[in-house]
């Protein structure tokens, strides 16, 4: 059996009706350090296509994102087919080593530790965020 076939056996298959119930409550999603590459697009597209009350999806992009790049991302994310017809898509860019949203501070990748925190949405216990 090939490696690809073995990998495919481990993939969970979900019915469209199996979408997580909590998506019905998500109004705002912010993706920091968004690259626009396939893994990021696939992750973001899940929210675009399933979050029914989404109001704003914000993408924080390292470096400059041109109008053409944003237009291409809009298509890749299938934003015209979004579950929430009023949802807005906002791309913001930052440059250098300091991201104003807290993604990268002094070369430290903030997202490396958030899953080990009791509440990953509470940055008050993070010394890297608190000291910035």
UniProtKB/TrEMBL annotation:
Origin superkingdom: Eukaryota
InterPro entries, A to Z: F-box_dom-containing (IPR055302), FBD (IPR006566)
Pfam families: FBD
FBD domain boundaries: 16-59
Name this polypeptide is given: FBD domain-containing protein
Species: Aegilops tauschii subsp. strangulata (Goatgrass)
Lineage: Eukaryota, Viridiplantae, Streptophyta, Embryophyta, Tracheophyta
């Amino acid at each position: 059996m090939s490696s690809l076939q073995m990998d495919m056996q481990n993939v969970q298959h979900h019915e469209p009706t199996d979408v997580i119930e909590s998506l019905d409550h998500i109004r705002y999603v912010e993706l920091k350090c968004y690259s626009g590459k396939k893994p990021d697009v696939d992750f973001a597209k899940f929210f675009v296509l399933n979050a029914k009350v989404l109001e704003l999806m914000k993408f924080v992009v390292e470096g400059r994102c041109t109008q053409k790049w944003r237009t291409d991302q809009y298509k890749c994310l299938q934003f015209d087919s979004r579950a929430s017809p009023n949802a807005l898509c906002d791309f913001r860019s930052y440059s250098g080593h300091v991201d104003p949203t807290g993604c990268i501070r002094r070369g430290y990748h903030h997202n490396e530790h958030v899953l080990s925190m009791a509440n990953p949405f509470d940055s008050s216990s993070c010394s890297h965020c608190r000291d910035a």
